[in-house]
Specification:
single chain, 2 domains
């Protein structure tokens, strides 16, 4: 794009008052508030009274959309510690192996997600150990009627902006049950890292020193393809979903090493459209050496098709901090893309229309 156009867009992203007026539900404020949200969510998860008896035979988290990504975060961060497999169920039915010995988290921000309620009813029929998280709705009603542990989530957020509330309570419960350790320490480090990044990526920081604003301008009128690996694979998915919902734009994601066995071949046709795509790597300092090498070789193979591949490294030491730091950049970029598109990031009219037609 001409440099004058780029400068104009960067200037637009520095018009704080105009952006706040466009952002009707204060999505920027919600993203900036994530560090405090982590602490509140951890305390809420630690207060719930749980059944500590018996071995846990598998863990499932039923949820959709923003209510499911939190489960992916916790599974990615603590998978090496958990004594049982943990899966995220995005659909109407629990896996067949979920039994009365299994622990099932039911996560629905609204409390009325039909797929999640279907899984809740299945979990009740199978006699599973169930923990519910929602703002209320039918999930709350079923939990109260059946005496299930229930964690109430604040109703003042967008589901996709409730990342802390829809993830950390799961970890807090797993810690209370003795299945993982040191969650509070992880939360403290993650909150500290996100606090620093919020100053860097936030609205008040001018575009000249704001990587999130600069990347949003580079992605404007382009189709982002976000690649992660290991702990950042979930972050790549989150970027895709946030750009979809906040910026109302297409985006795609994949992960190393799997993409080297399929998607890498697809970067040839249709040649006339490849220039519309922009590839972003979400890197991490503790990746397997072969995945680092795969990223480098793949960049060399693709550079003639997609141009420069942008790399953004995670921050922090613990896995939770590193994953949430990668997610945080994408959250801000998606909001800045919404501003450049001239739209309020909050409404998701097609999702609401779909729900009405399915009801």
């Amino acid at each position: 794009m001409p440099i004058t156009d780029k400068q104009s867009m960067l200037s637009k992203l520095d018009e704080v008052a105009a952006i706040r007026a466009l952002d009707s539900q204060d999505q920027f404020g919600m993203v900036a508030g994530l560090p405090g949200q982590l602490f509140d969510a951890y305390e809420a998860g630690g207060r719930v009274v749980l059944d500590h008896g018996g071995e846990v035979g598998g863990i499932a988290v039923a949820g959709m959309g923003g209510s499911a990504i939190g489960a992916d975060v916790i599974a990615s961060v603590y998978d090496a510690e958990l004594p049982s497999p943990m899966v995220t169920v995005r659909g109407y039915n629990l896996p067949h192996w979920i039994s009365s010995r299994s622990l099932v988290f039911v996560v629905s921000y609204s409390g009325n997600t039909e797929e999640t309620i279907s899984c809740l009813n299945e979990a009740l029929e199978r006699g599973c150990r169930i923990i519910c998280l929602s703002t209320g709705g039918k999930v709350s009603e079923i939990a109260v009627a059946n005496g299930l542990p229930f964690i109430e989530v604040p109703s003042s957020l967008q589901p996709r902006a409730a990342m802390g509330w829809l993830s950390v309570p799961i970890a807090a419960c797993l810690e209370s049950l003795g299945l993982i350790e040191a969650v509070e320490e992880d939360v403290r480090e993650a909150a500290s890292v996100l606090g620093r990044l919020g100053e860097l990526y936030g609205l008040e920081n001018q575009s000249a020193s704001n990587p999130a604003k600069q990347l949003a301008v580079d992605l404007f009128d382009r189709i982002p393809v976000i690649y992660g690996s290991e702990v950042t694979a979930v972050a790549a998915l989150r970027w895709k979903c946030q750009i979809n919902e906040n910026a109302k734009s297409l985006a795609f994601n994949h992960q190393f090493p799997e993409l080297n066995h399929n998607e890498i071949v697809g970067w040839e046709y249709p040649q006339s459209d490849l220039e519309r795509f922009r590839v972003i790597y979400l890197t991490d300092g503790k990746l397997h050496p072969q995945n680092v090498k795969r990223m480098d070789v793949t960049a060399e193979l693709l550079e003639s098709y997609v141009g420069e591949i942008r790399r953004y490294a995670s921050s922090g030491e613990c896995r939770l901090a590193r994953l949430l730091s990668s997610i945080n950049l994408g959250d801000y970029v998606s909001l800045y893309l919404a501003v450049l598109n001239g739209i309020d990031p909050s409404p998701v009219e097609r999702i609401e229309n779909l729900k009405k037609r399915l009801a």
